[in-house]
Amino acid sequence: MFNEIKLSTNIVVNNKKIQEFTVEGNDYKRDFDIGTYVIDLMEYMRSFNTYVNGIMINDNHGRSVYSLATANGDIFFLNQYDEFISKYKNDSELDKKGRFTKLFKNEKIGSEYFFYIVPIIESIGGVHFSQRTGYCSVMVNMEKIKGLVVNTELTPNSTLYILNSQNEVVASNHTNSSSNIFKEILSVDQHSLANGVKTKINGKDVIVQEKGLEQAVGWRILSMIPVHELTTDMNDIKNISFIAGIGITLSMIILVYFFLNNLTRPVMGLVADMKRAGKRDMNFRVKVRSTNEVGALAYDINNMIDKMEEMTRDVFNTQARLYESELSKKQAEFSALQSQINPHFLYNTLNCISSIGLEYGSKEIAQITSYMSKIFRYSIKKDELVQISEEIQCIKAYMNIISIRYENKFSMEVNVDEKLLERGTPKMILQPIVENSVYHGLESIDAGGYLHVSGHIDANGDVCFQVADSGKGIAQEELDSIKAKLNMDHSERVKNSLDGKNIGLSNINNRIKLLFGEDYGVEIHSQLGEGTKVTVKIPYI
């Protein structure tokens, strides 16, 4: 309400015609030309703003114009009003901003009023520019204010006051408010009133609180509420809260029962099943008693037990394979001991023969024995895995012996990817295959044959060796027999190894599969009259 009064009044005092009215010296022009517009503007403002009962414009020379509701009479022309308002218009503070006055009582009819006074500062650029040329006095509608307060009821016996800067009661919802009671309220500490204070008024406990009005300096709203009325309202809340508490407690008991029944029982059953599974009853599986998280957990536990059994079987199979591999190795060592050949004695003998061949001028004997000593020294190395470059050097030494033996009857070539030379391979897996190609494939044909050894990395990243010759090839029946030995089960391969039947390609294939698994080994392809190709596959080590 105060904001609307201020806004309307500022529109008036900032109006160009209003300012001209306060400085115009020509009475005729002032009264008939400008005055008509000013009166119409004030009439419009008063009718538009229901909080305004009357408006008066005064200049510094005592001239005035006004608009007033007829119900209020000609209050602006009372000597009592002139004396009341002169205190404000002569106040130097009025040059800065408008202000609300204290209460003015019309002694003639006993009515009370208060006003909002604003200076008129000339801003149209005349000789009085930025000076006060008059003031605007707005009569506030007291009935409107009182109506707002009367309709506000906090509790049945609560009291609400609007106080001006002189602590006068402008409006209250109790018309018969005792002045003594009001003095008791004002005696309370003003700083504490903002947060609310419990005190005694006429022997009764009340809560008193104050709220200042920013729009009017010194004006405030004061409330006084009996304490017993606040606590009386709390009794219903207590009863409702008590009933609600009982209902919540019963609901919680029911929820806890269902929770325990649907969760605890499956959990206890899961614990019992886990104890049974912990006793190594491997055929037992946990019962899935529900579809919630406990059921999902039971399902996952069963999957875990299945995987554990599968892993156990894999461990047993791996241990069996290692045992069989070690057994095969011992069998090979035993066979070597049975040969009654001292490897170092044979190696030294070959070196001796090479020296004698050189001394008597037999170059071929010297070369053959030198290559043989290299091959034999390589074959007796104790390392199970060697570099591929060492295996290739062994093959080349063997090929040199074959070239001397057959006087270059056929061509031989080794083509291995340089990336493989430092990789690992089982020892002596290619030389026996090359030897088979020579003696079983190339030896019985006329000149012009070839032997090709190659090595590369396949699409899966594994190492593949190929030994291909253009020899006489292998008959289909014999080829099927060889492939059957290469593809036989692991247990059968071990049995043949123990029986001493595991020789040549079968021996190489068995060694590779024992070392690296069933995905690796030897394959053979051959056609009678066209040659043979043997493929050896090992992992990239």
Features:
541 residues, 5-stranded antiparallel beta sheet, 50% helix
Question: What features would you describe in this structure?
Answer:
The structure is a single chain. With 541 residues, the chain is an alpha+beta fold. It has 16 helices and 19 strands. The protein has a five-stranded antiparallel β-sheet with strand order 2-1-7-6-3. A five-stranded antiparallel β-sheet has the order 9-8-12-11-10. Strands 14-16-17-19-18 form a five-stranded mixed β-sheet. Helix 2 packs antiparallel against helix 3 (27-48), helix 10 (343-359) packs antiparallel against helix 11 (363-379) and helix 11 runs antiparallel to helix 12. The model is unreliable at 336-342 and 498-502 (pLDDT under 50).
Show the helix and strand layout.
Elements lengths: L1 H12 L2 H8 L3 H22 L3 E8 L4 E5 L10 H11 L9 E2 L3 E2 L6 E2 L1 E7 L10 E9 L1 H9 L8 E5 L5 E4 L6 H8 L3 H4 L3 E5 L2 E9 L7 E7 H52 L14 H46 L4 H17 L3 H17 L5 E3 H18 L5 E6 L7 E3 L4 H12 L7 E8 L5 E7 L6 H11 L3 H10 L4 H13 L4 E7 L3 E8 L3
Summarize the structure.
The protein has helices at residues 2-13, 16-23, 27-48, 79-89, 142-150, 179-186, 190-193, 227-278, 293-338, 343-359, 363-379, 388-405, 431-442, 476-486, 490-499, 504-516, and strands spanning 52-59, 64-68, 99-100, 104-105, 112-113, 115-121, 132-140, 159-163, 169-172, 197-201, 204-212, 220-226, 385-387, 411-416, 424-426, 450-457, 463-469, 521-527, 531-538. The strands form 5 sheets. The protein has a 5-stranded antiparallel β-sheet with strand order 2-1-7-6-3. Strands 9-8-12-11-10 form a 5-stranded antiparallel β-sheet. A 5-stranded mixed β-sheet has the order 14-16-17-19-18. It is elongated and about 160 Å long.
